[in-house]
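Exercise 7. Given the encoded structure of a 204-residue chain, write a plausible sequence.
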């Protein structure tokens, strides 16, 4: 006699980021946190006019940002775009009371001593309270990509404000929905290899 099928166990929801927000924080508080964390990648710190955010990213957050970064680098390799990764390089301005550590950031070209990144990538897995675009605005980062709910939104700095644009202008021609098709492929080496193969086929 056939055994009755066992009910499927519900999947656990993805882990959330751990976020602590401190209001009334000073620039000195922000600097002290940076000093205490040293070269550690966590917590990731953001500061905006007296609001200090400390984020301990979840495993899913870190996986998403790393996969997007590796796929971006693969696209640049296939298309011959010169780009250098700077990870979570701290960008800060005491005058404008802003500071941030991107999930990933890149400089285009061959500048050996860049003042800031050209492209910053942020993963919004768990909503915090700081408007990160507002931080980047005064730091003059040319383009910001924000991944949220499986899609990437692109923002270009125009004058003093960010404007949403349909596709990246810094990496002209990159198809972000196509890139995201490979974000869940494991291992990373297979994802990058398959993505590069598709790109190479199309670019021949």
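Solution.
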């Amino acid at each position: 006699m056939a055994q009755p099928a066992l009910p499927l166990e519900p999947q656990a929801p993805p882990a959330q980021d751990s976020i602590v927000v401190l209001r009334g924080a000073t620039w000195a508080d922000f600097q002290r946190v940076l000093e205490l964390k040293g070269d550690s990648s966590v917590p990731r710190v953001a500061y905006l006019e007296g609001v200090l955010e400390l984020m301990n990213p979840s495993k899913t957050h870190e996986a998403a940002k790393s996969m997007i970064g590796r796929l971006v680098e693969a696209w640049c390799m296939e298309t011959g775009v010169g780009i250098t990764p700077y990870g979570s390089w701290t960008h800060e301005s005491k005058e404008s009371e802003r500071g941030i550590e991107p999930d990933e950031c890149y400089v285009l070209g061959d500048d050996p001593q860049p003042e800031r990144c050209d492209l910053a990538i942020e993963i919004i897995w768990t909503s915090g309270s700081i408007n990160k675009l507002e931080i980047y605005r005064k730091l003059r980062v040319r383009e910001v990509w924000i991944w949220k709910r499986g899609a990437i939104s692109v923002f270009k700095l125009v004058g003093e404000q960010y404007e949403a644009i349909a596709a990246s202008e810094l990496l002209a021609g990159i198809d972000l929905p196509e890139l995201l098709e490979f974000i869940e492929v494991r291992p990373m080496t297979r994802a990058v290899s398959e993505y590069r193969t598709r790109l190479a086929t199309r670019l021949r």
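Remark. The longest strand covers residues 151-158. Students should compare their own answers with the one above.
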